[in-house]
Design brief:
Layout: H1 3-22, E1 35-39, H2 60-74, E2 78-84, H3 85-88, H4 102-105, H5 108-124, E3 127-133, H6 164-181, E4 188-194, H7 213-232, E5 238-239, H8 258-261, H9 263-275, E6 283-286, H10 300-308, E7 316-321, H11 340-354, E8 358-361, H12 383-402, H13 419-423
Parallel strand pairs: 1-2, 1-8, 2-3, 3-4, 4-5, 6-7, 7-8
Helix pairs in contact: 2-5, 5-6, 6-7, 7-9, 11-12
């Protein structure tokens, strides 16, 4: 090889190495047997709404213990937590502004806490879904009576007339800041773009509402402006904004068609895939039992997979699985009189039937007002639910063994059941999410 050719080869290798060093990690693979998880809300203080991730250090040992028990007792491999914009702000209520660096506006101690939690999940053998919650999806002048981020709110920042600029920077800087702080960013299974202008930590309003068409108009502008920055940030996989099928009966939703109930899926798929041509690594949806088929004869899960497109099932995570303690009386579904264990079993069977990427259930632990946990307030496991979850874990391990992988490698607001299903507006997540 002559000197010129050698120099050219070395230059090419150097450029290739540089490209690999700066290129985001886009390959997304679920563990063999799929994700099996829970929304993690450990009750580490007397106040059920205690913001444990904001004040992590004094409770870190208790959280570590709970994470290890989830692996040992429940055979789970994923936890989901909210990363909230109010906690991320150095001055609560004062949102980041265009052109500011992370250090100009952020509560850096909170980012350190989130990074430490990611490392603790890695040590326990868990991956973590980080749901980034920003409320600024529509300007505060749109639907002002219901907007959480309006002047005078001491926690949630005000959404100005073009809130997508600040929101895009917040999402991107939070992703980069946390990934840089954790020793094990590979333990972040994926980031999810989340937030609700009315309730904060809830599914975004992606569905059609003939009475408030301006909300969907502004939401489309927000998604199309923010998603490219969100998807580009950091190195870990990105999930689309969480989707919500609406099964409410009565009021606005009485007699609505299946197409209207699943309009959020149609809108988001069109915006991300057809218009932007920037598909997500993962689709995420809130799930409901006994909807496939539902009492109206419609197979809603089948329709969802069809809407999202060919091959979408293996990239679809079914979340917020509902067992005991969930009030489904305001829905069209035949679920209210079914035991919690039967609800959970049905949902897990459907995940297997469709070949979904996995699931997580709501929630890890009961609170005084919310008895939906896998564990009671006293820490006791609910044996009927635990047995179902453990069986799913055994099936996941069997799938891993059959694939030649004995164990998956370490991964590099309450659902809207009540208010959405009653009114079509996302319900507030419990204050413990704060």
């Amino acid at each position: 090889m002559n000197r010129a050719a050698s120099a050219s080869l070395l230059a090419g290798l150097a450029l290739a190495a540089l490209a690999l060093a700066v290129a985001p990690v886009r390959a997304f693979a679920t563990p063999r047997g799929g994700w099996r998880g829970v929304h993690f809300n450990p009750q580490v203080a007397a106040d059920p709404h205690f913001p444990w991730l904001l004040l992590y250090a004094p409770h870190r040992d208790a959280v570590r213990s709970a994470l290890r028990e989830l692996v040992r007792e429940a055979r789970l491999n994923l936890v989901s937590v909210f990363v909230m914009i109010p906690h991320s702000l150095r001055t609560p209520g004062r949102g980041n502004r265009v052109g500011e660096r992370l250090e100009d506006w952020a509560n850096l101690a909170y980012l350190d806490n989130v990074a430490a939690f990611v490392d603790d999940c890695h040590a326990a053998g868990l991956s973590v879904e980080l749901d980034l919650v920003d409320n600024r999806w529509v300007p505060h002048t749109v639907d002002p009576d219901n907007h959480i981020g309006k002047p005078g709110n001491p926690w949630w920042p005000v959404a100005d007339q073009n809130p997508w600029e600040e929101a895009a920077a917040w999402y991107a800087q939070m992703i980069a800041g946390i990934e840089a702080r954790t020793r094990h960013p590979e333990a972040i299974a994926f980031w999810c773009m989340m937030g609700n202008y009315t309730h904060g930590a809830a599914e975004p309003v992606l569905w059609s509402d003939a009475g408030r068409p301006e909300v969907l108009h502004w939401t489309e502008r927000f998604v199309k402006a923010v998603w490219p920055a969100f998807r580009r940030a950091g190195r870990r996989p990105k999930a689309a904004p969480i989707l919500l099928p609406i099964f409410a009966r009565g009021g606005y939703w009485e007699g609505r068609s299946p197409e209207e109930r699943l309009s959020g899926f149609t809108h988001l798929k069109r915006w991300l895939v057809d218009d932007l041509r920037l598909p997500p690594d993962l689709w995420v949806m809130s799930a409901y039992p006994f909807c496939d088929p539902a009492p109206d004869g419609v197979r809603y899960l089948e329709r969802i997979v069809r809407i999202l497109g060919k091959g979408s099932a293996r990239r679809l995570l079914s979340t917020d699985l509902k067992s005991e303690g969930h009030d489904l009386s305001g829905t069209i579904l035949d679920a209210e009189r079914r035991p919690g264990a039967e609800r959970l079993r049905w949902q897990l069977e459907k995940c297997r039937e469709y070949g979904f990427a996995g699931w997580w259930m709501w929630a890890y632990q009961d609170t005084p007002s919310d008895r939906t946990g896998l564990r009671g307030r006293d820490g006791a496991w609910k044996r009927d639910l635990l047995d179902i979850v453990r069986r799913a874990g055994r099936q996941g391990r069997a799938a891993a063994m059959a694939s030649g992988l004995a164990r998956p490698p370490p991964a590099a607001c309450r659902s809207c059941a009540s208010a959405v299903q009653a009114t079509g507006v996302a319900a507030a997540r419990p204050a413990s999410a704060l």
